[in-house]
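Progress note, project year one: complex with iron/sulfur cluster.
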Amino acid sequence: MKYLDEYRDRRAAERYAKLLQALTRHPWTVMEVCGGQTHAIVRFGIDQLIPAQLSLVHGPGCPVCVTPLELIDRAIAVSRRPEVVFCSFGDMLRVPGSRGSLLEARAQGADIRIVYSPLDAVALARQLPDRQVVFFAVGFETTAPMTAMAAKQAQTLGLANFSMLVAHVLVPPAMEAILSSPSNKVQGFLAAGHVCTVAGFAEYGPLAAKYKAPIVVTGFEPLDIFQGLAMLVRQLERGTCAVQNQYARSARASGNQAAIALVREVFEPCDRQWRGIGPIAESGLRLRAAYASMDAEQRFQVEGVVAAEPKECLAGEVLRGLRKPHQCPAFGTLCTPDNPLGAPMVSSEGACAAYHRYHR
Ligand code: SF4
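Model obtained:
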């Protein structure tokens, strides 16, 4: 298969594994930011082929995992209102809130529908003028342009029954929060190639220089990850901290200018709470004043939401690279995909789900 088999070639992977053995002379801890990369690493056994001195920790790049618990509780409360049709990506339905999930709310009668695009929710609002259609807008820089497009389309159509519960987050502020933490162990990053394809990676340079941590923009196939690791380890061994682009077939420093302009037109940066991690300044997006009438938090005032994480869940430590999923005492016992305690065990991009699925 063109453009896939090339990146999964076993012999080339073995050559990269040998190269990494030769390059790695000191112990290093590096983080892959994206949950998709985490799944590729454990699915293809990359973590078992790299030198023991090279420790891969898993980052906060799973949008479902970092959506604040309080917002999930709020989403459930909004979805229970009789006039509401609540639209969400499927992954969000099983994520546990403080007292149940959206899936449980649906079983109890809430009108919750899975959509594959925010534009599907706009189409639903057109079809159902007597209902209030609410879209749960989660995700990173990759999904924000489509949400922005939905907001513009709903405004152009004059839809008064469409709104959004916005939980969009931005990757670079989260990387800075990890690097600036006193407990940080991360010495270099594999940055998420698809995020950089949309948003570019120009702002990574100052981050790499400030914290003396090399950053390699990296794709998602096994050879992408091996090559990204080789570029990163070369830098770590030499003591350099540049931003390099392994994913040159897709990502450019300037990103996709049309998508960036669209997001800037509809959203503005705001401080945002990250589930398990806490507040990170300027790490989220909120609707600008021209679109504020579509803000579901304002349209549906929900009182008395008090979010409480189960104390057994150590997702925050997993998402900051301080602990691996199997080092959580609840992993595979109290917490399984059928009975998840935290979002990383539910999401298709969650690190705990990856470890459980591929028996780490
Ligand atoms: S294994 Fe479960 S309880 Fe432990 S950190 Fe992961 S999601 Fe939380």
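The two ends are 29 Å apart (CA to CA).
The first strand starts at residue 28 and ends at 34.
No further modelling is planned for this target in the current period.
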